[in-house]
Amino acid sequence: MIQLACPLCREPLDEQPGQLRCGNGHSYDQARQGYWNLLLVQRKRSLDPGDNAAMVQARRAFLDQGHYALLSDRINALLSQALAGRNTPLELLDLGCGEGYYSARLEQALQCAGIDAALTGLDISKHAVRAACQRSRSARWLVASGADIPLPAASLDAITLLFSRLMPEPMAQVLKPGGLLLLAWPGDEHLIELRRHIYTDVRPSAYDPLTQLSDLFSLEGQQAVQYRFTLSDNDSIQTLLGMTPHSQRLAPAARDALAALTQLELTLDVNLAVLKRR
């Protein structure tokens, strides 16, 4: 597994038992859960950035119900196919890894495909990374900013960015030339039934990440994943709501209507793309 880079001076970090230290004397202690916190205090925009503990707990509970397993399988198959035939071992980063559901499943899928890859998961939320540590003991987990990835330049073979903030330059910096980026973002119909319960005017999304990436990445392939699934009790509906930003925007009438639902049929609509670092 590649050495981490010091977030203060970018020098390589040597790993010692329970500690990272660079040649300039900057040191970082390992958390008892096993992750490394490389998010500098002066670079935080809030006291507790990223998803809070309640959102992380809700996301973990919802994902463990398996509703997004088919999506995860498609992501894993797409990346496994794209990486097949490359010289191993490979270095992978799950950027914005959240509580580690997709990361851990990807790690297992690559092993089953016979692809030797070391996986690093990174998220700005310490609550998410603490939960991710329970998903896999073999992956390396980091609390850090995706705008300042603590990895050496041109050190990664692939990055996955699933429903997370797009940062073209930092991603391109740490990818090798020809390295891969697997991107996932919501389609226009994604969870539209839930959104119709929350908003009076549901409009198609104008989000186009591929255009934003075109200067640094070439598109290798794109596909959509679409299927329907059903939540059969209100606890599951509330769990889904709690893991999304929609929960912060609920009007009282919408909250009451959702609280009364005992079943909700939903559409999963997600775009996947594989891009190559120019």
Automatic annotation (TrEMBL):
Does the keyword Transferase feature in the UniProt annotation?
A: yes
Keywords associated with the record: Methyltransferase, Transferase
Q: Name one GO biological process term.
A: methylation
One Pfam match: Zn_ribbon_RlmA
- Domain of life (superkingdom): Bacteria
Domain Methyltransferase residues, every copy: 93-179
Q: Give the Gene Ontology MF terms in alphabetical order.
A: methyltransferase activity
**Key word Transferase present in the record?**
yes
Domain 23S rRNA (guanine(745)-N(1))-methyltransferase N-terminal: from-to ranges: 5-46
Q: Which InterPro entries match?
A: Methyltransf_25 (IPR041698), Methyltransf_Superfamily (IPR050508), RlmA_N (IPR048647), rRNA_m1G-MeTrfase_A_prd (IPR016718), SAM-dependent_MTases_sf (IPR029063)
Name of the protein in question: Methyltransferase domain-containing protein
Which organism encodes this protein?
A: Marinobacterium rhizophilum
